[in-house]
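haha ok so turns out i had the wrong file open the whole time. this is the CORRECT one, sorry everyone. sequence first:
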Amino acid sequence: MSGARLLYCFICSLLLGGGAKSAEIIDLQVERDGPMLRVSSDMILDASPQRVFEALSDYDRFSELSSRYRESRFIAPAFGGAPRVYTLMEGCVWFFCRTVERVAFLTFAGQEQITATVEPELSDFEYGYEVWKFSLAEGGTRVQYTHDFDPEFWVPPVIGVWLMRRELENDALKAAQRIEALARLQQQ
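then structure:
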Protein backbone atom coordinates (compact mmCIF):
# COMPACT_ATOMS: atom_id res chain seq x y z
CA MET A 1 0.00 0.00 0.00
CA SER A 2 1.41 3.42 -0.90
CA GLY A 3 2.25 5.97 1.76
CA ALA A 4 -0.51 8.32 0.55
CA ARG A 5 -3.11 5.53 0.68
CA LEU A 6 -1.94 4.48 4.13
CA LEU A 7 -2.22 8.08 5.38
CA TYR A 8 -5.70 8.39 3.83
CA CYS A 9 -6.85 5.12 5.47
CA PHE A 10 -5.34 6.18 8.79
CA ILE A 11 -7.20 9.52 8.74
CA CYS A 12 -10.44 7.80 7.70
CA SER A 13 -10.11 5.24 10.48
CA LEU A 14 -9.68 8.06 13.00
CA LEU A 15 -12.61 10.05 11.65
CA LEU A 16 -14.96 7.13 11.07
CA GLY A 17 -14.04 5.22 14.19
CA GLY A 18 -16.25 7.59 16.24
CA GLY A 19 -17.89 4.98 18.47
CA ALA A 20 -14.78 2.87 18.90
CA LYS A 21 -12.89 2.85 22.14
CA SER A 22 -9.46 4.41 21.73
CA ALA A 23 -6.07 3.25 22.92
CA GLU A 24 -5.47 3.50 26.63
CA ILE A 25 -2.09 3.50 28.37
CA ILE A 26 -2.61 1.84 31.75
CA ASP A 27 0.98 2.00 32.96
CA LEU A 28 4.37 3.16 31.71
CA GLN A 29 7.59 2.74 33.67
CA VAL A 30 11.27 3.46 33.07
CA GLU A 31 13.75 2.05 35.57
CA ARG A 32 17.50 1.76 35.87
CA ASP A 33 19.63 -0.90 37.54
CA GLY A 34 23.28 -0.02 37.00
CA PRO A 35 23.89 0.17 33.24
CA MET A 36 20.66 -1.78 32.53
CA LEU A 37 17.49 0.10 31.65
CA ARG A 38 13.96 -1.30 31.64
CA VAL A 39 10.98 0.19 29.86
CA SER A 40 7.63 -1.44 30.55
CA SER A 41 4.10 -0.58 29.59
CA ASP A 42 0.62 -1.98 29.80
CA MET A 43 -2.03 -0.77 27.34
CA ILE A 44 -5.41 -1.64 25.91
CA LEU A 45 -5.92 -1.32 22.14
CA ASP A 46 -9.16 -1.30 20.20
CA ALA A 47 -8.31 -4.14 17.83
CA SER A 48 -8.27 -7.93 17.99
CA PRO A 49 -5.17 -9.69 19.37
CA GLN A 50 -4.57 -11.24 15.93
CA ARG A 51 -4.57 -7.83 14.20
CA VAL A 52 -2.34 -6.24 16.85
CA PHE A 53 0.09 -9.16 16.53
CA GLU A 54 0.11 -8.76 12.73
CA ALA A 55 0.74 -5.00 12.99
CA LEU A 56 3.62 -5.41 15.45
CA SER A 57 5.25 -8.35 13.70
CA ASP A 58 5.40 -6.56 10.32
CA TYR A 59 8.85 -5.00 10.56
CA ASP A 60 8.67 -3.82 6.96
CA ARG A 61 6.07 -1.33 8.29
CA PHE A 62 7.19 -1.07 11.93
CA SER A 63 8.69 2.38 11.38
CA GLU A 64 5.17 3.72 10.72
CA LEU A 65 4.26 3.09 14.36
CA SER A 66 6.41 5.78 15.97
CA SER A 67 8.03 8.99 14.80
CA ARG A 68 11.24 7.81 16.49
CA TYR A 69 11.74 4.99 13.97
CA ARG A 70 13.39 6.16 10.76
CA GLU A 71 13.76 2.73 9.21
CA SER A 72 12.70 -0.86 9.88
CA ARG A 73 12.85 -3.99 7.80
CA PHE A 74 13.38 -7.71 7.78
CA ILE A 75 16.93 -8.72 6.88
CA ALA A 76 18.52 -12.05 5.98
CA PRO A 77 17.41 -14.73 8.43
CA ALA A 78 19.82 -16.25 10.91
CA PHE A 79 21.38 -19.64 10.40
CA GLY A 80 18.54 -22.04 11.02
CA GLY A 81 15.95 -19.65 9.59
CA ALA A 82 15.13 -17.43 12.58
CA PRO A 83 13.76 -14.07 11.34
CA ARG A 84 15.97 -11.04 11.89
CA VAL A 85 15.13 -7.35 11.80
CA TYR A 86 16.95 -4.06 11.44
CA THR A 87 15.71 -0.81 13.00
CA LEU A 88 17.13 2.70 12.90
CA MET A 89 15.84 5.03 15.60
CA GLU A 90 16.45 8.74 16.12
CA GLY A 91 15.50 10.81 19.04
CA CYS A 92 16.37 13.59 21.38
CA VAL A 93 15.85 13.59 25.08
CA TRP A 94 16.35 17.18 26.07
CA PHE A 95 19.61 18.16 24.37
CA PHE A 96 20.89 14.56 24.12
CA CYS A 97 20.27 13.43 20.54
CA ARG A 98 21.16 10.03 19.21
CA THR A 99 20.75 7.76 16.18
CA VAL A 100 20.59 4.12 17.24
CA GLU A 101 20.86 1.00 15.10
CA ARG A 102 19.60 -2.39 16.18
CA VAL A 103 19.68 -5.87 14.67
CA ALA A 104 17.64 -8.50 16.50
CA PHE A 105 16.40 -12.07 16.23
CA LEU A 106 12.64 -12.53 16.46
CA THR A 107 10.83 -15.42 18.08
CA PHE A 108 7.10 -15.93 18.17
CA ALA A 109 4.95 -17.83 20.65
CA GLY A 110 1.89 -18.31 18.47
CA GLN A 111 0.21 -14.94 18.08
CA GLU A 112 0.43 -14.26 21.82
CA GLN A 113 4.03 -13.05 22.07
CA ILE A 114 6.85 -11.51 20.07
CA THR A 115 10.38 -11.52 21.47
CA ALA A 116 13.31 -9.58 20.00
CA THR A 117 16.84 -10.41 21.14
CA VAL A 118 19.54 -7.93 20.14
CA GLU A 119 22.68 -8.99 18.29
CA PRO A 120 25.19 -6.77 20.16
CA GLU A 121 27.93 -7.02 17.52
CA LEU A 122 25.57 -5.41 14.95
CA SER A 123 23.79 -2.98 17.27
CA ASP A 124 24.29 0.04 19.50
CA PHE A 125 23.40 -2.09 22.52
CA GLU A 126 25.52 -4.33 24.72
CA TYR A 127 22.31 -6.22 25.54
CA GLY A 128 18.68 -5.99 24.55
CA TYR A 129 15.66 -8.21 25.17
CA GLU A 130 12.20 -7.00 24.20
CA VAL A 131 8.88 -8.80 24.77
CA TRP A 132 5.39 -7.96 23.49
CA LYS A 133 2.54 -10.06 25.01
CA PHE A 134 -1.00 -9.96 23.64
CA SER A 135 -4.18 -11.12 25.36
CA LEU A 136 -7.87 -10.62 24.84
CA ALA A 137 -9.34 -7.74 26.84
CA GLU A 138 -12.89 -6.48 26.90
CA GLY A 139 -13.41 -4.91 23.50
CA GLY A 140 -9.83 -5.27 22.34
CA THR A 141 -6.32 -6.40 23.19
CA ARG A 142 -4.17 -5.97 26.25
CA VAL A 143 -0.53 -5.40 25.28
CA GLN A 144 2.14 -5.89 27.92
CA TYR A 145 5.56 -4.70 26.85
CA THR A 146 8.98 -4.95 28.48
CA HIS A 147 12.33 -3.94 27.08
CA ASP A 148 15.51 -4.58 29.04
CA PHE A 149 18.58 -3.02 27.46
CA ASP A 150 22.12 -1.88 28.09
CA PRO A 151 23.01 0.81 25.55
CA GLU A 152 26.55 1.31 24.27
CA PHE A 153 25.96 5.04 24.58
CA TRP A 154 25.85 7.14 27.72
CA VAL A 155 22.50 7.74 29.43
CA PRO A 156 22.82 10.39 32.16
CA PRO A 157 22.34 8.96 35.65
CA VAL A 158 19.17 9.97 37.53
CA ILE A 159 17.93 12.57 35.07
CA GLY A 160 18.27 10.18 32.08
CA VAL A 161 15.50 7.91 33.37
CA TRP A 162 13.24 10.88 34.12
CA LEU A 163 13.83 12.40 30.67
CA MET A 164 13.33 9.07 28.92
CA ARG A 165 10.04 8.49 30.75
CA ARG A 166 8.83 11.99 29.87
CA GLU A 167 9.59 11.50 26.18
CA LEU A 168 7.97 8.05 26.15
CA GLU A 169 4.84 9.42 27.83
CA ASN A 170 4.57 11.98 25.04
CA ASP A 171 4.99 9.32 22.34
CA ALA A 172 3.25 6.24 23.83
CA LEU A 173 -0.38 7.17 23.18
CA LYS A 174 0.37 8.29 19.61
CA ALA A 175 2.20 5.02 18.95
CA ALA A 176 -0.67 2.99 20.45
CA GLN A 177 -3.15 4.83 18.23
CA ARG A 178 -0.97 4.12 15.18
CA ILE A 179 -0.87 0.42 16.08
CA GLU A 180 -4.67 0.45 16.29
CA ALA A 181 -4.97 2.19 12.92
CA LEU A 182 -2.55 -0.24 11.26
CA ALA A 183 -4.40 -3.19 12.83
CA ARG A 184 -7.70 -1.84 11.46
CA LEU A 185 -6.20 -1.40 7.99
CA GLN A 186 -5.20 -5.05 7.98
CA GLN A 187 -8.87 -5.97 8.41
CA GLN A 188 -9.77 -4.20 5.16
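DSSP finds three helices and eight strands in the chain.
again sry for the mixup
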